[in-house]
Specification:
It holds the Pfam family Peptidase_M24. The chain has helices at about 5-20, 30-40, 65-70, 85-95, 115-125, 135-140, 145-170, 175-190, 245-265, 270-285, and strands at about 25-30, 50, 55-60, 75-80, 100-105, 130, 195-200, 220-230, 230-240, 295-300, 305-310, 325-330, 335, 340, 345-350, 355. The protein is built from ten helices and 16 strands.
Length: about 375
């Protein structure tokens, strides 16, 4: 398995403490990233049962048990052959232990299907269901040394991908052709589940199109999420093709300035909304406020975007930067007619910010 099993056992123990404080008898973990966080391995269609006290139980498909046990520290592993068997095993675990309150993560992540939730409610009508995502994210927001080392390694892989992007971006090339070469480089360097977005038009988080091509007089923005041992680093750069308009020049200048503000001002104990206000002021001064998408930072870890998510969850903007957080900034792009303009790095919060995707790239290609 990857990592020392003591790391994962300690995580479960801390989570169990939170369950007991919240008076939750046990948790049914179906979200993939949290499953990885506690088991130490990625496994599709995951099911992990964590009691408030006692040993966790993993449930895998028939024939997978032996390999799963090689890749995880979990000793109690059961197999199912039919989907209905899986549901029955979860229900039996709850009934056998007399649980009245069970936690589940309310998430949009893969394998956290609303269908599973609805079936669960029908099979367990007397059980109260509590959202335990705030508990798992409370742990996951602050990274330990092993997690941070993986994020740093992922940062190096992301840089290799951006180097390839610069070589591949040429007028006439499609977003898909550029993305394909970046994916290849990332995977050859150990990224098992990379995320690559290439936009040659003003689109945020643009999954590449085969029929959208690079044009002169436009920006091409490349967003890379490279993972190492399941942990991500996020790197974004925008490149202008040809001679820029005045508006494009203003957008580039503004983005450079807000990127610097974010790196300088996001310090221990600083509220994210404080930095957000300074960033918004820069765009107002440049007359670009109508193109700005609010939310300058988000967490990075087992997901390319996780808590704190100031880009999506408004209350998170009132949170403070804490030691051990891994953050991507500046996340929000300027969406001008010439394209999306964005400069984003992954940093680790400590007494000083450590930029793990430090990469000097020319803006003009």
């Amino acid at each position: 398995m990857r990592g020392n099993e003591r790391i994962f056992k300690k995580r479960v123990e801390r989570f169990q403490e939170l369950l007991r404080k919240s008076e939750i008898d046990g948790a049914v973990i179906r979200t993939l990233s949290t499953f990885i966080y506690f088991t130490g391995t990625k496994w599709l269609r995951p099911s992990l049962l964590i009691p408030a006290e006692g040993e966790p139980v993993a449930i895998v498909a028939k024939g997978e048990k032996e390999l799963f046990m090689q890749k995880s520290w979990i000793e109690n592993v059961e197999e199912f052959q039919k989907t209905e068997d899986l549901m029955a095993m979860v229900t039996m675990w709850i009934g056998k232990n007399g649980y009245s309150t069970v936690g589940m993560e309310f998430s949009i992540e893969r394998d956290a299907y609303i269908l599973f939730y609805e079936i669960f409610k029908k099979l367990n009508p007397g059980v109260q269901i509590e959202d335990i995502r705030p508990l798992s994210m409370q742990l996951r927001m602050i990274k330990d040394d092993w997690e941070l080392e993986n994020i740093k390694k992922a940062g190096k892989v992301a840089i290799r991908g951006m180097e390839v992007a610069m070589e591949e971006i040429k007028p006439g090339k499609s977003e898909l052709e550029i993305a394909a070469e970046i994916y290849r480089e990332l995977m050859l360097n150990g990224s098992e589940d990379p995320k690559v977005y290439v936009s040659a038009t003003p689109r945020a988080h643009a999954e590449p199109f085969r029929d959208v091509r690079v044009e002169k007089g436009k920006f091409v923005t490349v967003v890379i999420g490279a993972d190492y041992n399941y942990y991500y680093a996020n790197l974004t750069r925008s490149f202008f093709i040809g001679e820029p308009s005045e508006r494009a020049k203003d957008a580039i200048e503004a983005m450079e300035k807000v990127h610097q503000i974010a790196l300088e001002k996001t310090q221990l104990g600083v509220t994210f909304s404080q930095v957000e206000k300074e960033i918004a002021e820069v765009y107002r001064e440049k007359g670009l406020q109508e193109y700005y998408i609010t939310g300058y930072t988000h967490g990075v870890g087992l997901l390319i975007e996780e808590d704190p998510i100031t880009t999506i969850v408004v209350p998170h903007r009132a949170m403070k930067a804490q030691e051990g957080m891994a953050l991507a900034m500046v996340h929000a792009p300027l969406m001008i007619p010439e394209g999306a303009v964005k400069k984003e790095d992954t940093v680790i919060v400590g007494k000083k910010l450590e930029n793990v995707t430090l990469f000097d790239a020319p803006v003009f290609l």
